[in-house]
Each structure stands twice: as C-alpha cells, then as structure tokens.
Amino acid sequence: MNKKTILAGLMFILMINIAYSLEFYKGTVNVNSIDANLTIGEELEVAAEYTFIGNEKVNLDFFNFPEDAVVMYDGVNYGKKFDLEINGDAIVTVSYTEQLNEEDFKTASFNPNVYFNGNLNTKRINSTSINLDIPYKIISASNIPIEIVYGKRNNYLWKSNDVYASRLSFSWNTQDIDLLIKREYPNMDEFLEGAFTLTTTLTNKGNPIDNMVLVTSFMPSDFEVISPKKDFETIIDGNDVRVEWKKEIPYFDSGETLQFEYKLKINDAAASVVLRPLNAYVDGSLVAVTNKLEFFSEESIIEQNTRGDIADREFEKRNDIGRVLNKEPMEPTLRVPKIGENLDGKEVFIFEGKKYVYVEKSLLDATEAEGKKELPLLSIRSIVLIVLFLIISLIILYFKLFRKKPDHKIIKYIQLRLEEGYTQSQITEYLLKLNIDKKKIEECFVIAKKEMKYREMR
Fold it and tell me: May I ask the CATH class of domain 175-364?
C-alpha cells in the first residue's frame, strides 16, 4: 500500500467522521420523563428513572454517567450502553455515586442526556423532575428551583415540561456560615438627579466570621463612580476589564449588622447596564452570592419589541429608533410606559429624560429558560456549511495531489512527430511497442493537440 492510498483512506475516514458527528437520532424512541433524586453526603448519590416511549430497537448510551453506573432494565444491569427493544414504553433506572472535591466550596451537576444509536435526540422530553437533598443551603444553581424546603436537610425541587434535556449544576459551601445580604436599590428621586446610591446590608445570623471579603464589579462603560472613589479599582485581566468594589471585613460577630454605601452614575442613558452579583468570601472560599442588578433603558426595551413585533419591511421604514419612539404613532405593544406604571411587573423610572426599569435577578434565575431553548439550528447550518466547504476542499486537494499528472516527455514526442508529418496511428503504434498504456497515449494526444492549437492561435 503506497503513501497516496493511505492518505486517501485517511481523508475518507475523516469525512465520514465529520458527517457522522452532525447526525441526530431520527427514530421513534424518545424520553417521555426523567425523575431524579440527588443526595449530598460524603459523596453525590444519584438515583434516576427514565421512561422511554416508542416502537423499535435502539442502542442507549448513558455517556454522561460514571463507568460503574448501575443501569437497570427489567431487573438486569446492562451497564452504560446497551440495545433495548421498546414496544410502547420502557422504564430504565440509573444509580451511581460521584466523589466531591475536598474544598469548602463545592460544585456538582447532573446531566441527563442520553445517546440514541450514538446520536442525540432532537425530541423534547415531556416532563422532568429533579430533587436535591442537601444539608446546606445552595449558593447558586443553573436553573431556578420551583420549591425549596429548609430543615436539618434542605430540599430543592426542579420541575419542567416539554423541554430538551440539559445539565443542572449547583454549588454550596460546607462552612457553618449563615449570612443575610441585601442590596437596596435607588429611589425615583435619585434617578431624576442623575446618580444613585446602592446600599449593601449584611447580617450575620450564624457564628462569628473571620477574614470575610465582599466583591462586586461592573464594566467601566456602564457606570461612573461618584463616591467613595477609594473603594473602587479598575482591573485589567486580558480581555476582562472591570471596575471592582471590594470590602474586607476582618471580623464579623454573630448577630452583627454591617452596612456599606457607594454612589454611581449611569454613563449611557440609552443603554442597558448590569451591576454584577455581590460575592462573599471567607478565607478565599465563596460562601454567598447576591442577585445581580440590571438597568434596562425603556428605549432599549422598545427597540427589542420593535424588532420582534414589526415586520422587517416596517422596521426598515423606521430605521431610526428615535423616530419610532418620538415621531411616529405606535402600536399598543410599543407605547411608552407612564411613570410608576408596571412594565412586565417592573417599576419604571425616569433618568436624564429616559425611562428606565430595574429588576433584581438572582443567580438562581440566571438560566431559568435554559432547558426550553430550541436547538441551535443556525449554528448547525453554519457547521454543515463549514463541513461541506471542508469536504469540497479535500476533494479538490485530493485531485491535485493524487490525479495522475500527464507525461510531458510523451506529449513533447507526440508534438514533434505530428509536426514532422507522422499520423496519430503511426505514433501510437510506436509508443505501444515501448509498453506505454494505450489510455495514457490517448490522453497525451488530447493534451498535445490542444497545446499545438493554442500555439497556432497565438
């Protein structure tokens, strides 16, 4: 086997693998429901029940779970990957444990995705239920729980319907720390004055705390620091440029309440800006996270609604958003809210002549709709186009590298003999006696005649 054959084989395998990676499962089987219980102790213990529906044989691969996961169907442990004949419905149970990191701040996750015949399933899951039993309060989670029950052990419940399977991640701290952190937001008068004060109040509801640090930040383009400027520092870490507020608390007694204030001004009245969450650390370990504060300009909200509610041709006519807001009549969905009126449950304020609305959004709520996101069709199309371009490029490269190049010595010989008056049959007969392939001779004749004709035209 020569080098060209090996390279051609490798290229073929590469193209097959690329095409395979873009495949989705197209059969009839789907996950109808997932019911999972997560228990935090010395380890993470997971017990989940999958209900599959459909009518065909399918290969199931619980690829996200540990190698020693127990995957049971009809009383038999099949392991992570096995074939299952489904006629109507089938219940598969999964159980496993995972080690937790040794630090005080811990994270864990549960990813329920399953491969069907080696591919992801594009169908939605009818219902999911995940219950977390943990002896601590969680600091953050990728989805917001619909129910929380506190006790000696705390229970968090996530439920959703008609969703794609998505990873649930959460974090907690094992230190005996119970903090109440509250950030108070600006009132209407401060907005009207063009600057506002943020007040952070901390209450220690647990044991005394040593070496606590509070940190929050924002983009320098979003806010201007009015006072006290000494509490802020501009941090440049590669592409991350931020203004950081940090407060060190050497000792925080049990039952004590502390309060901190600073004054900011929004730089761009037409933009939506974010004050990032406030993080509390003890001995360098994260123990609490507050909500983030988002300021949405009323103008930005209108712009989003305009693009969503008006046909493209209408939006092109109104290419200046200022015209939409100030000069042209608006549809009811685009009307400007009045002062004090609720806009989707958020109170509206005026700031430098612009209407603003603020909303407190918890980290627990950061990806509430994550499970309901549609598959990224645009991204898939882009990937397909890139792969097609790659395949075409490889094909072109293949022909350039491996296509038999014409024998210029034979072509030159043919041209000389034709110019001397020999016929094609005479030249062919002579070349055949030299054990040259007849097809190769014919190809060389075609090239030789084309070159001669081209020279005559010049």
Answer: mainly beta
